[in-house]
Structures are given as C-alpha cells and as structure tokens.
Design brief:
The chain is α+β, with helices and mostly antiparallel strands. Helix content is 49%, strand content 18%. It folds into three domains: 80 residues, Arc Repressor Mutant, subunit A (Orthogonal Bundle); 156 residues, 2-Layer Sandwich (Beta-Lactamase), CATH 3.30.450.40; 97 residues, Enolase-like, N-terminal domain (Enolase-like, domain 1).
Amino acid sequence: MTSPTQLDPRTREVLRQIVAIHILTGEPVGSRTVAKAGAGGLSPASIRNVMADLEEMGLLSHPHTSAGRVPTDRGYRIYVDALLPSSRLPAADKALIDNSLAGIGGELGEAMEVIPKLLSRLTRHVGCFVSAPIGDAVLKHIEFVKLHERRILTVFVDRTGVVSHRILEAGQDYSQEDLDRAGRYLTSEFEGQTLRQIRARLVSLMAEEKATFDRLLKNAITLGSSYLDAESDQRKVIVDGTANILKVPELAEAGTMHRLFATFEEKHRLVTLIDRCIDQPGVRVVIGQEAADPALDSLSFVVSQYRLGEQVSGSIGVVGPTRMEYERAMALVGYISRLLSSLLTRQQS
C-alpha cells in the first residue's frame, strides 16, 4: 500500500488539491481545475501525468463518464493522515458548543441528547453518541416498582446522572415493601461500585448460607442479579440527523439509502464499528471500506472517546459520506469530546 512518504511534494500537492476540490463540489476533478487552483504552478499536462500516476497507485479512480478523477478510500486515507491542513474551530462554533454544554451541569443524560444534535447541526451529517456498557456504569441509586403481578420496573441511576429502565419478569410475586427494602439495601451496600463489581459480589453472596435464611438479602440478590443479567452489555446509542443522508447525491440510489437507514436502525452495528476503531485516545477516522461492513462502505466515521477522569466512558462522533470535510469534523469531535470529559470529571471531583 502506498504511504505518504512515497509521494514527492508535487504529487502530494496534486492529490491534496483533488481531494479538497472533490469534497467541495462532489464532481470528478479534471487537470485544468487543479491547475486553476494552484498545484505548485504545474501545467494541465503535467497534472494529467501526476493524476495517471496516482490512479496507478490506487489513490484516484476514473469514472467512465468523465475525464476527471475522484479520490478512492486509500486516497482519502493519505489525505486525512498526512495532507490535511490544520484547522481551528471558528470562535462562533466554540461559543455555540460552550453555551450548549454549559447547561448540562455534568449530567451525561442531558449530554446524550444535546451532543448528537449539535454535531449534526454543525456538520450537516449524522451525529452519534454511544455510552459505555451498562456493566461499567457506577451505581448511584436503584429502585424497583411493582407494575402487575410479577412484572417489576427497575430504575437505575448511575453517577453521571444517566437513568436506565428495565422491566423484569420476576420468578415470584413481591410486595412493594419488599421491593423498596431490596432497592435501599442495594443502594446502601453498593453505591460507588460498577455493575460488574456488584455482580461479582452478588454471586459471592449467593454462595453463602446466610442468603438462604435472610429474606431481605435473598430478595436483593435475586432482583439485582436479574437486572444485571439483562443489562450488563447494553449500550445507549443516540443518533441525530439521519435525514441529512438524503441530501448526499452519491448516496441517493434507493438500494444504498435503504441499507444505510437499516444500519442506523440496527445500532449495534454502529457500536461494533466504533468500538473497533477507538482503541486509543484522540480522534479516529474510518473511511469507507475500512469499516469492513458492505452496508457502510460509502460512509466515513469521525469518532473520539470521552472520559470520566482516567476511565473511558463512551464515544461521540460524526457519520457522513466519504466526501466529507474531515478537518472540520475532526476539529468538532475533538473539541466536544475534550469539553465533555472535562465537564464530567469536574462534576465528579
């Protein structure tokens, strides 16, 4: 695979110009257009030779109906990794973001609603927010509410303020008094621990004979274990702006559109991809076929983790066509993820 270091300065500049122009126009880019844009003062003939070389390297493709070229996923990858101009967010964008997040007060539940809308509005693509697995959430409060016979509503609140609900089908009929006592016991005993830690302790308690004779402990173990078994690997996924996909000409073909909207409905596919690509801090970019999912090979993802102290809490990102303004999307995602991490950490300190 071609690396940026294999390209001489002239070739790098031509590739940079082609990608930038294609992102702006959505049309195949010809040599005369590149020449007019600058490209180091090269003539159209010289640029055509460079474009032919870039096509041979697999960095450009040549649509049959046009004399111009368009970037391939590999061309976009070199552009993102080595050719992107440094981009700083305009003061107006920073002010909008700061004002939008100032009102959440470190509450992740509010951030989950605000941030996807903000990213969608500022990029005109799809904004997304993915929480950490529920198993990594830290307990602040839990309670159980009797609904009907053996149906019980579990209300779980984590330390970032996110509220989760789950209806359980109980193995026996509990009174509301028993449910209240079990909720108070779990909150008092396990507040400040992650659900994975709580599960391990409940498993240990189940092995002790005391649980057999202590009604409160038995109820708490049974109800707590039922909730944890149902929730431990669940993720909250919020997306906003899917209608923006309709405005992208190259995605307008009916079959493509159907696959994309189906993917946004099947949010676990987005979670799988995002988890795979953000194994380290900083903004990460996945371009087209790098997603290794045929339904997503016309999209790019710009994502970043957000943190609570040193612990990764989840991720935010932008999903759009491979022809997106990467520098702007990366600057926005990076700034918002850092600001959110700061707000959450400050709230918990």
